[in-house]
Specification:
With 475 residues, the protein is of the alpha+beta class. It has 19 helices and 14 strands. A 6-stranded mixed beta sheet has the order 1-4-5-6-11-14, with no helix packed on it.
């Protein structure tokens, strides 16, 4: 067996190599899609997410009640097994979607479910929010991505232990306890903004207090039952989370700028799709993270011709994954073949324009002509360039025209490709949001405001001096 192992620590020497190779915060392949169709798929609502969340919590409460009624009998075993799978397993996809802010249209509903699911999984909300931003920025880039669950070579024992995380979860609790007393590790500091570290401490303290309280309760009544409902389900129910998570990236290529090479889509049955919130369409999610989970099947139909064929079912995906992991145990350099990825020109540096990209023309009075005023429908955007600078022109739902700098201040993504939500624009890369009336960043990971530029309409044309009007003060 080849024993060469790369250094997977975030911020380690591999991070410097990734930077030198141009893999850090780089541009990723995006397949072509009709801009109007993409805008339709990006639309969020509260009804579908509320129904799915109510069903999940209802099942959790129902099996929890059955487990209570069956205490002292063998029927408690399957009842708690189902409860744990819904708590420590299905909670993962709810954490994920609400963390992106795409499940519900209403922000506070996303936040409530995100914090609830974060506790169920014992994931510190601030830590994991920024960790997942990094995962989307530098997906499976060694030294940068903190969510690589299969560092090579992964032994059969290490794979099996993922399903019964008797080491991982206690290590997470220890890490949380350290953060609670202010001992924040270097990995966390490498991707969490300094002004967010205070939240990390208080969240960690809340977690430790709850876990300590439930443990004290169990000791006081000399029964493990309270811990079977809170705390231990994160361990005994984690198998379902791992079962789904393995299908995402395991065995695929490291250090590439094409999600088709490091992420897979797997067709799953309706029960699995409910438990997993349609995250089986994982390539599509990584390429278009602004599309909510309930629209991913439709998105798949739009872009599948540009992607590798999806695995026909979960069993087929697992056979291929396990075969690849066995080979990687002996040869860490081995990658699952991706010969079925369709050839697309400039695949590593391709973008979708959700509006027309134009070069702004100079007018005789010194103002730049940004195009006809009636060319933008409400809720749409257009990208344009002047020299080496990129700008974005938006029309809000009330008809107001707004001109901003063209790149997100966090991830350097083209904002004209984002989703316009009333008076907000959502970045297509990390779901950060900006208030287009003020330029302020109103949703993480965006923290720095946008520069706004004045616009006016002359003879049916949008014109601007492109001299800074204001820059928001941040949120």
């Amino acid at each position: 067996m080849t024993s060469v192992r790369r250094d997977y620590r975030v911020g380690g020497p591999e991070a410097d190599r990734a930077t030198a190779d141009g893999l850090v915060e780089a541009e990723w392949f995006r397949p072509p899609i009709d801009p109007e169709r993409l805008r339709q798929l990006q639309v969020r609502g509260n009804a579908r997410a509320a129904l799915d969340t109510a069903a999940w919590l209802g099942l959790l409460a129902g099996f929890g009640y059955l487990a209570f009624l069956s205490l002292g009998t063998w029927w408690a075993v399957p009842a708690f097994a189902a409860y744990g799978a819904l708590y420590g397993g299905a909670g993962d996809s709810r954490w994920h979607e609400c963390g992106h802010g795409t499940a519900f249209k209403t922000k506070w509903l996303n936040d409530v479910v995100y914090y609830l699911a974060s506790f169920m999984l014992l994931r510190q909300p601030t830590l994991w929010r920024w960790s997942h931003v990094r995962h989307h920025t530098d997906t499976i880039v060694v030294g940068r991505d903190a969510e690589i669950i299969f560092p090579r070579p992964s032994s059969p024992t290490s794979i099996a232990l993922l399903f019964v995380p008797v080491m991982n979860v206690p290590n997470m609790v220890v890490r949380t306890a350290k953060h609670a007393i202010g001992r924040i590790d270097d990995e966390a500091r490498s991707f969490i903004p300094v002004d967010e570290l205070g939240k990390l401490k208080w969240e960690s303290r809340a977690y430790i207090a709850i876990l300590a309280g439930v443990t004290a309760w169990s000791i006081a009544i000399w029964s493990i039952v309270p811990l079977l409902y809170v705390g231990l389900p994160t361990i005994y129910g984690a198998w379902l989370m791992v079962f789904f998570a393995i299908t995402q990236h395991a065995g695929l290529r490291e250090d590439v700028l094409d999600h088709r090479l490091n992420t897979r889509t797997v067709y799953m049955n309706p029960v699995f799709r409910f438990l997993y919130s349609n995250m089986n369409y994982h390539v599509e999610h990584h390429i278009f993270p602004t599309v909510p989970y309930y629209s991913l099947p439709a998105l798949h139909q739009e872009v599948k011709v540009y992607l590798a064929p999806a695995s026909p079912n979960t069993w087929s995906a697992y056979r291929r994954i396990l075969s690849t992991l066995r080979r990687q145990w002996r040869n860490p350099a081995y990658d699952e073949p991706r010969d079925d990825v369709p050839a697309v020109s400039d695949a590593g540096r391709s973008f979708v324009n959700t509006g027309h990209t134009v070069w702004a023309g100079d007018r005789h009075d010194g103002l730049f002509d940004l195009g006809p005023a009636n060319a933008l429908a409400p809720g749409s955007a257009r990208q344009f360039e002047v020299g080496d600078e990129t700008y974005a022109l938006f029309r809000l739902d009330d008809g107001t025209l707004v001109c901003t700098e063209g790149l997100c201040t966090h991830g350097q993504a083209y904002l004209a490709e984002g989703l316009v939500l009333d008076c907000l624009v959502e970045c297509p890369k990390h779901n950060g949001r900006f208030d287009l009336r003020t330029g302020e960043a109103v949703r993480f990971p965006a923290t720095d405001p946008l520069t706004l530029y004045p616009v006016e309409i002359r003879n049916g044309r949008v014109v601007s001096s492109l001299q800074s009007e204001s820059k928001g003060t941040g949120s």
